[in-house]
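Hi team,

Below is the intake form for Peroxidase from Carex littledalei. Please confirm the fields before the structure is written into the shared record.

FORM ID: S-0412
PROTEIN: Peroxidase
ORGANISM: Carex littledalei
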Amino acid sequence: MDSKILMTVFLSFVPVLLLLSSTEAHVEYGAYNKTCPRAEQVVYEEMANILATSPDLAGALLRLHYVDCFVRGCEASILLNSTADNKAEKDAELNKDVRGYEVIDRIKAKLDEACPGIVSCADIIALAARDSIRLSNGPNIPIGTGRRDGNGSSASDVPLNLPSASANITLLLSLFAKYNLTAKDLVVLSGAHTIGKAHCYSFSDRLYNYNGNGSSDPRLDANYQTVLKQQCAPNDMTRLVGLDANNATAFDLGYYSGLSQKKGLLTSDVALLDDATTNAYVLLQANNTSTDQFFADFAMSLMSMGKIGALTHGKGEIRKQCSVLNPAPPPSPPPSPKSASPEMRSAFSSVLSASVVLSYFFIQFY
Ligand code: HEM
Ligand SMILES: *[C@@H]1O[C@H](CO)[C@@H](O)[C@H](O)[C@H]1NC(C)=O
Ligand SMILES: *[C@@H]1O[C@H](CO)[C@@H](O)[C@H](O)[C@H]1NC(C)=O
Ligand SMILES: *[C@@H]1O[C@H](CO)[C@@H](O)[C@H](O)[C@H]1NC(C)=O
Ligand SMILES: *[C@@H]1O[C@H](CO)[C@@H](O)[C@H](O)[C@H]1NC(C)=O
Ligand SMILES: *[C@@H]1O[C@H](CO)[C@@H](O)[C@H](O)[C@H]1NC(C)=O
Ligand SMILES: *[C@@H]1O[C@H](CO)[C@@H](O)[C@H](O)[C@H]1NC(C)=O
Ligand SMILES: *[C@@H]1O[C@H](CO)[C@@H](O)[C@H](O)[C@H]1NC(C)=O
Ligand SMILES: *[C@@H]1O[C@H](CO)[C@@H](O)[C@H](O)[C@H]1NC(C)=O
Ligand SMILES: *[C@@H]1O[C@H](CO)[C@@H](O)[C@H](O)[C@H]1NC(C)=O
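The structure came back. Fields below:
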């Protein structure tokens, strides 16, 4: 056979292959390039407006992405309201301090002016988290989009997946490992606590009742303990304290230097000193003059976290309102032959790949 013909056959497959691979399920850079080219810009502008008047919300929005991803995946289950017969994640005890929901609704409204019904609530959360970091003097992290919104939310999933403020290192490592996140991911992502605040009750056991007998945590610097006691009376239910004793508004290395100086706020922060890998990372960053490595590491780990359980293409929906599921569609007609299922596409793709390899060998032989 003429190798030119084979080459032509081969080349004619290339666009088909590219098309098929672009419809495979994944979180990718610029998923809205064509459908909503200004999406990321719209989110950034709205976040800049919101944080200019409420800088405290930067931490809240970054945390929202984490609590979303760790329970059912990054599919906006955290945003769903409870209903008469279902208690949703946001009403779980561990999530009672999660805030910033109204920010998501504001951004959603802006996006619906620019391109109605295109951008998912899960992507709004991820983009808002990314912009919170950038607007706190942190890195501008490129993140993938294309997540779609999930179809449920259950408060009972929360304690199985989210560690509490008093979690030890064993529990932290095992909860992260469930999502293939390593000890390094744990110590890097905990670095998010370089911004944002915690309620007094999230750590007051360390001040007033550490061993259940009225003593305080020996792993808390004595001067810092005095400062914290001034801010937090024993049963304070409302006050907020910066998680990073050095500077809770800047995305910097202050969280790690604080930890190395016994100024970690939560028991779960201090726990990072109890594992060789996480301890070494804390000490490496504690006195560092450059944020380069932390920023690069954070970008990598955030990307891994942002892929957990993401629903792409065929799965999930684009919610009309982030706090409620779309109304159920009318019963669907039998599947149309035109729209190939992901399984069919992948089978077709394998056949094509095999034929490309075969063509290549033919070209070699003739
Ligand atoms: C390692 C396990 C983690 C634990 C046990 C934990 C626990 C907590 C707790 C107890 C608070 C304070 C809540 C309050 O009292 O209002 C908090 C706040 C926060 N968390 Fe975490 N967290 C963890 C990991 C993460 C991760 C991976 C991220 C993001 C990548 C994150 C981002 C934040 C932020 C930004 C805040 C401040 C929230 C605000 O200002 O409203 N956390 N976290
Ligand atoms: C969107 O555009 C950016 C910048 O040109 C590019 O890096 C990215 O791959 C594009 N994504 C898609 C899905 O087209
Ligand atoms: C969801 O709950 C919040 C807070 O209770 C409420 O403000 C919001 O209107 C609810 N969303 C819908 C669509 O009802
Ligand atoms: C860590 O916490 C878990 C869950 O609370 C507990 O079962 C375990 O005994 C603790 N491990 C250590 C070493 O304290
Ligand atoms: C974690 O990695 C294992 C092995 O590579 C894989 O089988 C599993 O699906 C992954 N789990 C998640 C949650 O990504
Ligand atoms: C509380 O318990 C710890 C550990 O068991 C002990 O070291 C400490 O002395 C006790 N403190 C008081 C005030 O009894
Ligand atoms: C914290 O960092 C921000 C941003 O770099 C800076 O503007 C602010 O002055 C710092 N605050 C303190 C108390 O150092
Ligand atoms: C950081 O520098 C201070 C002052 O030089 C020093 O006391 C401390 O041990 C250093 N910490 C680390 C983790 O290297
Ligand atoms: C600072 O971090 C770099 C990597 O960014 C590392 O090679 C270096 O050892 C660290 N410096 C100090 C003083 O810890
Ligand atoms: C909810 O979504 C999951 C994941 O896409 C899917 O497997 C399941 O069938 C859906 N359930 C309902 C009731 O739509």
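SUMMARY LINE: The beta strands are 197-199, 240-242.

Thanks, M.
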